[in-house]
Structure formats: structure tokens, C-alpha cells
Specification:
The chain is about 45% helix and about 15% strand. The protein has 13 helices and 10 strands.
Amino acid sequence: MPSPLNILVAYPYLKQDSINYLREFNSKYPNTLCFFLDSGAFTAFNSGKTITLDEYCDFIKSLPFEPWRYILLDAIGNEVKTKENYIEMIDRGFNPVPVFTHGSDWADVDYYYDKSDFICYGGLVGKKGSSEVINDIDKFMKYTKGRKAHLLGYTSLRYLKKFKPYSCDSSSWLAGRRYGQMMIYMGNGKTKTIGKKDIISNPDAKVKDRLKLMGFDLEKIKQNSGWKGGASELSKVSTASWISLSLDMEKNIGTKLFLACGSAFDIKMVCDAYLKLNGLKPCQE
């Protein structure tokens, strides 16, 4: 079987249709999905909503498949409450991945590693170019001393190659759909971003070869319909490219790159692209 597909979904986005689809995927293709469940605390905080610990724990217990891991229900901006939630989840028989937040007391790193083999480093979203954050990631990675760590919402390829965390995640794979730019994975950790005009004006041989390798028809991509909507060829190529990059990163530098999905459509898009890359039939045809 191929290397597993790494996807991350936050609890607020995981509706019944997605759960049913993922259950079918797991049943049809065992051991090919590495599903990381995020509590969605950051998502809820930004929307002014609240997720209770009872609600989150009940949801985890109700899942018809076992997540690879699930993240603690952290309290944004409240390290004390975050620790209380962690202890409470442990007392209830759960084994969540704890979250150390950027700007917190560094002693918290040791506190969580005393209890867990794996921790998340949060508070990095939207700060990938900040020298302060880069310096803190450097400090954090040195502090972990090779122990398993996940960088939440961080996929700066330049620094991932430098720091080599155990895992990371991002929704950057959706950028092509948003901005009309196609990201093509060229292999060996290198990517190329091109626009519609570049495709129409006869792209270079390496781009053509890469598209063919991933199973895409260049003439179909050139059509107007190939650049519009979530199910466009642009979206499919970019998604397949991010998956290829993810698989290569795990193989070559040991970092699991999770594609963060925010809807049932996104989940199916990623899973279908993975199956196509590996010559497997899609679920729910």
C-alpha cells in the first residue's frame, strides 16, 4: 500500500457527511489515512463560539474510526485553563496531544513532555515571516531535543527543511483556488507557481512532464473551466501537488505535513487526489 495520506480537520468542521466519508475511506483502504483531529479551539475563538470539554470528549468517543491523534481542547490566551483541560482529559481516560502556545512560559514545554511523547506548538498562524517567530521556533526545536513536536498552521518550506519538526499542518494547499495560481510540485522539495497565461503559452517541458506524471491533461487545464471553482483542474493539480510534497517530505526529511481541511468538499478533494495519484478508485462514486 502507498504511504498514508496526512490530513487534519478541526472538530467544528467535521460534520456527519465527512465522518461517513472518512469511515468509508478507512474501510475501503485500511492504513492509508493518517487523520489528525484538531479541537478547533482557535476556530471557535475567532468566531466567538465556545466548545465545552464535555462536547469535545463526547465527539471523540462517538467517532466510528480512531484518529491517528487528537489535540487537547486548549483555551486560547489562557495557559492555566489549557493545563486544567489537559489534566481533565487525562483523568477521563483520553490521551490528547498537549499544546504549548507561542509566548508562553518555556517551562510548559517540559511540563507537557513529562506527560506526553508529542506536543503541538501553537500561535504561529499568519506569522511565518516574522523573525521573532522564526527565532522562537528555533529555540523551541532546540528545547525539544529531538522529541516529537508539531508546528500548528506552519508550512514555510524553507524553515521546515531547516528545523525538520516531526509534523506540521497548513491550509496553504487552498491558496491556488483562492488566488488563481497553480502550484505544481516539481519533485526534490521544489515547487513552481504558474498562472493561466503561463499554461496557455506553452509551459516548459519539465512542467508538462510533471503534470503528465500526476495524471493531468494539459489541454483540459488550458480551458477556461479548468481555472474556475473548487473542482477546477487548477484546484486538482494544486491539491495533488501538495499531497506529493507531503509524501516526499515525510520520506526525505521525516516531517509529516498535514493538509488542513475546512469542509466536506475539501476532505473529499484531498482524498480523491490521493487515490488518483496512487491509481486507486475514489470512494462514493
